[in-house]
Amino acid sequence: MSTIKQIATLIARVILGVVFIAHGWDKFAITGLEGVTGYFDSLGIPAAGFAAPLAGVIEIVGGILIIAGAFTRIAAAVLFVDMLLATLFAHISSGIFVTNNGWELAGVLGAGALLLIAGGAGSWSIDAILAKRNAGANTRATVKA
User: Fold this and answer.
1) Which run of H or E residues covers position 45?
2) What pTM did the predictor assign?
């Protein structure tokens, strides 16, 4: 992968991860679980008392993993589902614009996650380091056999 693609992928991962972390953190520290649970309940989300902290944990942990480029495709897949559910339960009926609680932010975050599912974290990631290490181990095992 070219250097410009690596730089772009890294910057996109960091921005996407920071936004996910911020939204997860909001659920615990700013709006708070009580407020988020009440909002989820008003939307008819099943088990809102469980779903609210789960969404927060998914967004914080997923954001950290995306920034690090660790287990990126798995983290991105979970975050994509998180954003799909947010879109369907909370935003789709309000149109597109985020100023009206529309789906644009959840859609863009979901699209970013989808790109990471398809393209991976890039060469500047923990995933790439682990892949190189595993490839070396497989080569050594094959030579010994």
Assistant:
1) none
2) 0.91
